[in-house]
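User: If only I could read backbone structure tokens as easily as an amino acid sequence. Underneath my words sits a plain record pairing an amino acid chain with its backbone structure tokens. This is the protein in question:
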Amino acid sequence: MDASNPQSEALAPLAFNDLAAQQDRIKDRIDAAIADVLARGQYILGPQVAELEGALAKFCGATHCVACANGTDALSLVLMAEDIGAGDAVFVPSFTFVATAEAVSGRGATPVFVDIDAATYNMDDASLGRAIDAAKTAGLRPRMVIAVDLYGQPADYETLGAVALENGLTLVADAAQSFGATMGGKGVGALADYTTTSFFPAKPLGCYGDGGAIFTEDGTKADILRSLRFHGKGRHKYENVRVGLNSRLDTLQAAILLVKLDIFADEIAARQEIATRYGEILRGVETPVVAPSATSVWAQYTVRLPESIDRETVQTACGKAGVPTVVYYPIPLHQQPAYAQHPCDPAGLGRSEEAAARVLSLPMHPYLTPEIQTRVAQTLAAALQEPA
């Protein structure tokens, strides 16, 4: 902020996710971590990768962690480990990013779209039950449920797990947005048969490129995943015992993540304080709901606009005032041209469609000041008064 102009901070365009502020805090440690990797010269599966896997597993309470190249590969590796393929049905929410369904289609399996809970935006168990019945009627083999932890809070894995167990399905948590959150006192990473996550830079725990990880309690499955991420290797890299991928996390990214993990708990607490403050000062919109037994890492702070409000008009007004907003996600997957032919809950996906039409995400990161939050709230309030 320019000391000669006390209004300069209020007038400057805001960052939606201020990674520069975080880097300022840890730059010396990041530089040292990168220098250490360069000095050792072990750029692929260097010692920092195994160190990170152990630290991540300890952080969330999982038994095994397998790092990989990105969050989409994490899903693909799980599907490969479970031998999911043609004729298999994998149940995914429609209101999410395309990577969840993309990984399923990439294996030749069929994504079956499930509706969401209106309050949490996570997978609805009743819709899942209907979708399973529909898949069976269509002649598909129900094999797996991939529940997405949207916006930073985990899905209801106790309820979804009961449905999965009843139908003999593997339960996977797509925790690309929720690593660091909890449900029922347990950390994300230890709530499902497998948990996948992403370290894309904008995630609550992000690296400076692509990265991902898989968590499981099953040591045999963890060994299979380690083989699959390295071309399906066996005793050594020139023995290939299965068809795999080239999906290893770079040592440089592991070193960066180790530094960021050291401050992650502090950043999660800051995100919660910021979310609480938003809930106190925002007016004219529906603020997020977190399930009573859950915590969120607030990957996004997403409000729901009134049905009568034109969202594009609100976004334009906010943008002119220097306040960025983003829509996660404007088109549900069952309405995407590439996926529109796939089966879904026969009762429809109305809650997914409504959410896609009304949600709006506001700036959220651990370094938002109360003054900036006030500016966001005031700008949004003024935008809501704009004529549609």
